[in-house]
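Appendix B. One record, verbatim.
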Amino acid sequence: MNSIDYLNIFLGSGAILLQILSVIALGLLFFRPRENRKNFYLDFIDKHFLILVFLISLAASIFPLVYSEIIHFIPCYLCWWQRVFMFPLPLMFGVALWYKDRKVIRYALPLLCVGFLISIYQNFFYYFGGDSNLPCDASGVSCYQHLVSVFGGYISIPMLALTAFFTLLTLLAVAHFYKKEN
């Protein structure tokens, strides 16, 4: 195994962990019994919300650059659009962390929602599109090249992006809704 394989396994393991933790957070947020108002896990997320979203958005901005600029995996058309909506977030969350401003949710939510929708679209075609070249141009870079494929093909570059958007949206939901019900 080379260093790229180790990076893929590291990022894939992190993505699976974030997916599991995000689903648990959403389950606890929306489906826990009302008589049990306090929850250690949701309290932790709510208390450390700004640092969590900053670190995850920073990682979600740095690692695509590692893949494209260091490893030389050229991003496809949809990957570029997702970058447009992810790259401003570490700056926004960094400023919010500096000023301890939880109102950043209002400004980050539109970027996250659009990026999440693009990511769902890309993942749908990546995993269920068959041999179709849509929506990526067949004459250029295509996300169907499977440059990253670990854990039985479950983790790919589109899945890593989807996980980042999903996790950030989950953290925003916890920070917004959990505080209001307590």
